[in-house]
Amino acid sequence: MNKKSKVLKADGYSWTGVEKKEYKTDTQNFKDIHRFTLLGDDISELNFQTRYFEIAPGGYSSLEMHRHPHSVIVIRGGGTLLLENEVHPLGLYDTVFISPDTIHQFLADTNEPLGFICIVDRYRDKPRIPDDETIHRRIQSPEVLSKLKK
């Protein structure tokens, strides 16, 4: 086996040797969410990062958009995804593609945690928080507007 190859052993929804971190440190527009960077920080051969996010019941990710695409696979619980003007209930193993510059937010609104694997480019732009003008210009759905958290 190549000396850089490795296996991360799971223990429930944590991994041996992988630190549970705060979701973000530069904003406060989220609630009860943590992240684990599983692969990509210390493996230079990877051009992507594999991360696990877990949102506690009642919590949510930041309402954001960015130039990079990413994919998400739900592996725990359920919740809701706000994707521009659409509301998508999420359950186990649902898989999501979020295209560049799409306003989105994950909500753990089903009285259970929402845990998902998220794969993104290793080198990517920082998320942008849409201002009120952008939100009102791009989101007309009353259902989305009633659910989003800022």
Series of H and E elements: EEEEEEEEEHH
Q: Alpha-carbon distance between the termini?
A: 47 Å
Tally the structural domains: 1
Average the pLDDT over all residues and give the rounded result. 92
Strand order of the largest sheet: 1-2-3-9-4-7
Q: Might you state the CATH topology name?
A: Jelly Rolls
Categorize the overall geometry.
Answer: globular
The CATH level-2 architecture is identified as: Sandwich
| Percent of residues in helices | under 10%
> At the fourth CATH level, what is the homologous superfamily?
Jelly Rolls
What's the gyration radius in Å?
A: 16 Å
Work out the helix count. Answer: 2
- Helix/strand/pairing category: mainly beta
Provide keyphrases for this structure.
single chain, 150 residues, mainly beta, Jelly Rolls, 6-stranded antiparallel beta sheet, 3-stranded antiparallel beta sheet, 2 helices, 9 strands, 39% strand
Characterization of this structure:
There is one protein chain. With 150 residues, this protein is mainly beta. It has one domain: Jelly Rolls. The chain contains 2 helices and 9 strands, in the order E-E-E-E-E-E-E-E-E-H-H. The strands form 2 sheets. It has a 6-stranded antiparallel beta sheet, with no helix packed on it. A hairpin with an 8-residue loop joins strand 2 (31-39) and strand 3. It starts with 20 loop residues before the first strand and ends with a helix. The mean pLDDT is 92.
